Write the structure tokens for this entry.
Amino acid sequence: MKHLFSRLLVSLLALALLASCDPKSKPDIPGPDGPLVVQFLGSEADKKVSPAGGDAFFVRVSASSPWRMKIAPEGAAAWVKADRIEGGIGAEQSIAIVLERNEGGLRTAELHFASGSETKVLKIEQTSGKHIQGDAARIEVPKLNEADGNYFVSHYSEGVVNFSLEYDVQRRHPRWVALTFDPITSARNYPKRTDAWAWDPKVPEEYATGFDNKDHWFRGTGFSRGHMVASSDRYYSREANEQTFYYTNMSPQRQDHNAGVWSRLEQKVQDWGRDGAFREVLYVAKGGTIRDDQVEPKRIRGKMVVPKHYWMALLLKRGDLYKAIAFWTDHKKYPALLELSSLAISIDELEQRTGLDLFHNLEDRLEERVEAEAPEASFWPGL
């Protein structure tokens, strides 16, 4: 990164020399006897919006006494780099600023200038490298994909997170969904299926795969609209159930898989999640595989992928006890009497198969221990 910063800085300085030869490019900045003036080069605005991919620009300073600059908040100095933070008396002093690439959410910084008794502030806003509308630090949330364009959203009901998902707009499919069962979200206050089919209001309609019960991409394909967060996962409020019918939560599933082994796994997870004596919190991530080598050759309407496999990852917390287990299924019909324990694998193995980083927000040593554990069927009632 230091070498990249140096190269960008050299480029900036070259641009500055060219700009200094063109009187039209110079802002109207007072001389050294005037007040403290700070400006973004070529703009009189006190705020600059920069792209997620990184940026490089100049700030011009005029001061009648020595000045200093501070980058705020403190953590912003990790992504806002300046070639100088102080200067002397004079006009048209330049500071080269470089912003590093943003792979997270929208972030802001301020440049605080002080000269004598005068202070000035310039504001910087860098757009999101992802479309983040939720809390990615939650334990159940897998590590976000580094690719641009995906939407990470959390849906709320009754003041708590209902579920979160990362939606891949290129594949028109959730990369994963994540939820918890706890004393609030495991409740059965509204144990009814709402069938409130709708597009997700947090993702642009240009990526929509359906708008209601009739207008959707699944009709006539031979695939069901397979919930990733099951309708029956969310009965703690009417709104919570309605949100499970967003099309961002749907996967094209063969009905004999959706209503068969997948439904059996969902019911088992719900039993564990609603047993307050068994769990303090049950963290759940699940989904269908959407990597290029893990989908069917043909896409629906040339865009929506059809997974070859489906998976679940569970982490139980009860006091100081943590236990984890994962399940892996092929996208096919299974025997009705299949032992679900035969589908169990470790979290480590699931990560190897999918390329996902699950439960990465745990403390490192705890994460390593629970993810390496072989499935312990006897711990999970009825497995």
The first helix runs from residue 2 to 20.
